[in-house]
Structure formats: structure tokens, C-alpha cells
User: What shape does this take?
Amino acid sequence: MSIRVLIVDDSPTMRALLGELLRRADDIEVVGTAANANEARAAIRQLDPDVVTLDIEMPGMSGLEFLEKLMRLRPTPVVVVSGLTSRGAETTVQALALGAVDCYAKPVGRIGDLLNCDNGQLAELVRAAAAVRSPSRRALATTAERTIPVARRTHARLIAIGSSTGGVEALQVLLGGFPANCPPTVVVQHINGHFAEAVARRLDAQCAPTICLAETDTVLRPGHVYIAPGNDRHLQISGSGGQIVSRLRPGDLVSGHRPSVDALFHSVAQSVGADAVGILLTGMGSDGAHGLLAMRKAGATTIAQDEATCTVFGMPRAAIELGAAERVAAIQDIADHVVGRAA
Assistant: This one.
């Protein structure tokens, strides 16, 4: 069966462009379009689409307001279509935190050029969204529902985290449970690099540790969480003189990604070994599974997010099937499992 998509965008040109890109895929059917929130509500009731692409900068009711109501009243997988402006990035991250599955950077330029530069990316995001569990079935605890974590100690020298589809929402919950004095923590989140800084800013405003983009050749410090900054370099770490140092390095795609969770986890296994914790969260595909296995073989504590709280149970499932995960836990419990290593 085809994946049925509704396109919501106030620009007729953009609706036509997105429709053309999706109609190129044999397994996707554009069942309708809408120019604003009112039209979108009516179309969703009438057409019951599998996936909605949503422009979040619309007149009248904003895309964020519409998304919040949609997630609460009729949960539907949503791919946000966003501009590459600073405002667009901030709004996109808010949408991901509200439950949007992923984001598609709204292309700029001449229409003919745009049709040639997509390379099937939008269709892939729609396919991933179609595989998402209904948000109403997820057992995610929100950051607002958690108490502020007290200062606690863990024996881990480093925590490494990998996430993809649904990861911004999951990271908000996980890092919301980290104390301000957490071990140095490194994160690879699959996301368009234009939005990485906005992700870091939002998480930093909501969580106790300092959260920032990783820089190369930097000594990692306790109380800090470092997020891979973009699409052009892998985030890896190395150990030198008792210190742990971040490395941003160019290279081929690893497990289909750059930055790659596998690339990060393998470097952690080699440099930190048994003194590390590896956490693999929600995501499509299998990136991180083999790296998590390498960490477990090196003696590290390894944790995979459970199916019930995953947006897409792809990456954690692959790790569990490999025997890479020492423990499987709900997203709202993982922080306590990590801290619990310090009894």
C-alpha cells in the first residue's frame, strides 16, 4: 500500500514543489494539500493521511499551534518543512520537541534546481514518519513533569549517546534527568546540520548540565554535554594524559551517516573502554548497533531505549538483536540507570 501524504503549506509554489518531489516515489501518494490550519484540519478529517508535511511559518494559526493541537487531539506523524533562517531553526526544534518526527530543510533557489537537489530526501523522511508509532501510545515523560535532579556521582568517565528519528524529544527527557555535575557526555543526533545549534540551545535552556555544540580538539569537562555540530564531520573522542578530547574529522559515511553513532561509539570503546556508558535511543536503521557492541565488549555499560517509548524502534532493536545492549529501559528511566552505576 502507498503512504498517503497531506501537504500543508501556505505557498502554492512550495505545495507544487513538495508534491512533485513526493510523486516521484512509487510508494507515496499525495492525497491532498492545504494552505492553512483550517484547511488542514478539514483535510485530515476527510482524508485520514498517514503522514503530514507541515510548514510551520503560516499565517493565522501558526504551524506550532496547529501541531500542538494535532498531537493532542489526533496524533499523526508529521514532517516539518522549515526554512534555513535562524528563526526557522528555532521553530523547527520546538516542533520536534512537540512530537514532529523529523524536519526537511525548505530548499531555496530556482524551482528547476530544487527538483534536482533533493535526491529522494523528502521521500525518505516520509517513509520514516510512516513507520512511527502513534505518539498517543508513547510513554514519554516530559521534562516539565520531572523533578530537577539532585547532584549525584557516577563512576563513568564518559557517557556517549546516539539518536535519530524522534531523538530531540527523547534527548529532552533523558538529559532532563542528568544532574549538573554529570560526566562529560557526547551526543550524535541525526539531524540537518543547520538545526544542530538550535537543538543545543533548547536543551541547554531546559536541562541542568551545560549543553553546547562539540568543537574539535577540546578537552571534555564534567557537567557538559557536547552535541555533534553538523553533517560534514564525524564526532569521535580520544584519550590523552588522562584527559578525554573531542575530535571532529571528515570522512566517508559510516553506517549511512556523517556524523555517525557507530563512528562515535567505536572511538569510545577504543579510548575509554570499561569506564564509559553507551546509550542508543530511538531512530530508523541500525547506526550505532555495532559501535554499542564494541563498547560492551570493551566492558562499558550499554543501554538501549525500549520499544514502548521509541518513536521508531530501529536502531535500538538492531543493537538488542546483536546482543549489544546490557540493559533495555524506558526513556524516562535511563538517566537513573546511568547514575545508579555509582552506588
User: Anything to note?
Assistant: Confidence is low (pLDDT under 50) at residues 135-148. The CA atoms of residues 197 and 245 lie 20 Å apart. The radius of gyration is 20 Å. The chain is about 35% helix and 20% strand.
